[in-house]
């Protein structure tokens, strides 16, 4: 396994542990969900602003080679992957979205007249 693959596997492991910790906290507060681990252990990778992508970006390995890296981990039996047909979605933003830079409204200064 190369360094890039080790980074991906480490980030995915920490994401999995975060999900598990969240489930334990929810159960401790009485909000137990009995869904099987095969459902709740899924880690979304297609969200460019999600925790996995952010962690990979911080380590300098979030780029167009992500698919190949995930495939290499899958081929080694270290992870399982699944894809769904259709449009990739960003759960926080909806189906297709276009981002525009946020601009502060321009304030017009009106000349004041001297009296």
From TrEMBL:
Residues 100-115 have a biased composition (Basic residues). It comes from the Bacteria. Residues 84-115 are annotated as: Disordered. This is Uncharacterized protein. It comes from Nocardia aurantiaca.
